[in-house]
Amino acid sequence: MGLTLLSPLPSLAGPLYKSVGPDGRVIYSSRPGSGELVDLPPIARENIDQKISRIKAETPDNCFKHAGVNCAAGADSDGSVVCNDGYRDAILPFNFSCLEASLQVLGLEIPTARTIRITVQNKSDAEARQVEIFSTLSWQGEKIRAMGPEKIAPNALEEYEFRGEHWTEAEVGNIRKYLKLLCENCR
Known about the structure:
By secondary structure, the protein is an alpha+beta fold.
């Protein structure tokens, strides 16, 4: 036979009291007489899936559903982007979407003993300008620069090459380790 004990538990949503300490800090307590009674709003529960659906429905479209961003159109009157299909109610800021580029290395291959080829993607709607790709052969070594285009078009891929006499395994490892991508307008 089991034994059940019943004891009154304080309500988690019981009265709350607010006071200000001598140092100016606000103190909340559940002890009566420790300050002014605070009127709390009722605890509300809501369906998170419904809330997400409502937020999605209330959020203006961006250019994803409108054939992409048209940076050549310039900023809309509110500073946002204009989409390729002419849609003007997007909320993406023009300065973020059309003036700053974002570069990423997609691959590194060694087609010959003298060449290391790097594929770089511009993941933004802005042209990447004055692109520089460099590395060193050691943590203290001199910079070596990859040869390739100075610009990468929006959402495009370009290839860059390091050329040398003969790349050792250690040199290839260091090029990977110390690889840097820069451009005039990269974020």
